[in-house]
């Protein structure tokens, strides 16, 4: 929020980020006797003052001063509610590659570190850092404005923004911290998704994205047990799911689905439909697995990706009477895709299917591979437990998939 508010008036991402960090350092001393009533406002004012001081020392002061005030208004002390959305749209400008859009937004809007961004993008840390640097330079050189685009510009930017918000939510689940989920990141994703629904009330995909987030988050309270250990979807106590979230999510997801066989559903509408089928099923046994696979087939046509292919294979493995050997063949084919080289859920899915086929020695090796790619301690404990169970097994099938 502070970076976004500062960037709105400086038009310089590096300067906004640096001055925000300096403002937090100053707060350590200034707040020694107590936090002010409006800490965000204090940080924003301080960051902007630091930026002005730096600019005054530059020889290009006359050239840059006109950029310090947004046309049509003053540099308010309070950050505006739409500041984060302005920053997202700036970071998602078509002049930037999709991976750069995602990396820059996660870094500037939420302060996500390079390691976590690399995990979301399934990329190397050095490459991610270079993308962020190049994207900042591109925004500065092209003088990309910090504003919500006009109506005629929105369609070209919307898909990128929706993708970034979804990956922001995902980033809240792939960190290396002690908890399974970062509520700060997931909360920011929800805030942006709701802003997009208000901004574009007639567009189905923003509603679908918000519905997907709600249907996924509704299970948050059941994803870990009393001891903080991971509980997979099929093993969760469904009475612990948030029914109010599910109701809102289903309403949004249903509204996002266009009627008719050739309706051309969007990718978030299809993903929300899958989440909705899980949410309404009273038990794992009564989940419509075949319909879920059909939806993944449609998703592969609309937005094919290696991750969607993996999720489709995992869904196929749960259909009653599934040909697990055929599923394993599909999973092994995905292992050759470089996009999944750092994705722990692929070897975890292989391990699950291998265990259910009775090939427990191979399953243990696959769990080892998943562990090497997993940073979160909760997930690591779960995978280690599954690995030890596979090692101890005498050939009996069992276990669940890597989903949660």
From TrEMBL:
One GO process term, biological-process aspect: DNA-templated transcription initiation
Start and end residues of each DUF6596 domain: 157-256
Sequence intervals crossing the membrane: none
RNA polymerase sigma-70 region domain ranges (all copies): 2-59
InterPro entries linked to this entry: DUF6596 (IPR046531), RNA_pol_sigma70_r2 (IPR007627), RNA_pol_sigma_r2 (IPR013325), RNA_pol_sigma_r3/r4-like (IPR013324)
Short name of one Pfam family: DUF6596
Sample GO molecular function, one term: DNA-binding transcription factor activity
Protein name: RNA polymerase sigma factor SigJ
């Amino acid at each position: 929020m502070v970076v976004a508010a500062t960037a709105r008036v400086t038009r310089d991402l590096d300067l906004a980020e640096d001055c925000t960090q300096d403002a937090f350092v100053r707060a350590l001393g200034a707040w020694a006797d107590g936090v002010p009533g409006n800490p965000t406002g204090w940080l924003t004012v301080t960051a902007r003052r630091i930026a002005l001081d730096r600019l005054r020392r530059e020889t290009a002061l006359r050239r840059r001063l006109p950029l310090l005030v947004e046309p049509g208004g003053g540099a308010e002390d309070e950050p505006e509610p739409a500041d984060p959305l302005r920053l997202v749209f700036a970071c998602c400008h078509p002049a930037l590659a999709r991976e750069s859009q995602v990396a820059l937004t996660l870094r500037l809007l939420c302060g996500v570190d390079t390691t976590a961004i690399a995990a979301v993008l399934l990329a190397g840390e050095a490459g991610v850092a270079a993308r962020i640097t190049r994207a900042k330079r591109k925004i500065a050189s092209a003088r990309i404005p910090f504003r919500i685009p006009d109506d005629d510009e929105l369609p070209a930017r919307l898909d990128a923004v929706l993708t970034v918000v979804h990956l922001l939510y995902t980033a809240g689940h792939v960190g290396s911290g002690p908890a399974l989920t970062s509520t700060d990141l997931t909360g920011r994703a929800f805030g942006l998704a709701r802003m997009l629904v208000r901004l574009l009330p007639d567009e189905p995909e923003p509603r679908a994205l918000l519905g997907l987030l709600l249907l996924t988050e509704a299970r948050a309270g059941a994803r870990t047990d009393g001891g903080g250990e991971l509980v997979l979807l099929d093993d969760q106590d469904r009475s612990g799911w948030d029914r109010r979230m599910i109701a809102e999510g289903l309403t949004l997801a249903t509204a996002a689905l266009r009627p008719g066989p050739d309706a051309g559903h969007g990718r978030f509408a299809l993903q929300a439909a899958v989440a909705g089928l899980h949410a309404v099923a009273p038990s794992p046994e009564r989940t419509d697995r075949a319909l879920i696979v059909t939806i993944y087939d449609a998703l592969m046509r609309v937005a094919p990706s290696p991750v969607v292919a993996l999720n489709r294979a995992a869904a196929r493995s749960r259909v009653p009477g599934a040909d697990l050997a055929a599923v394993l063949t599909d999973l092994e084919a995905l292992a050759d895709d470089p996009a999944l080289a750092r994705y722990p859920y692929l070897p975890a899915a292989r391990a699950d299917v291998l265990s259910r086929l009775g090939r427990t020695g191979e399953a243990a090796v696959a769990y080892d591979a998943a562990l090497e790619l997993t940073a979160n301690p909760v997930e690591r404990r779960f995978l280690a437990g599954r690995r030890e169970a596979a090692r101890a097994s005498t050939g009996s099938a069992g276990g669940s998939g890597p989903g949660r």
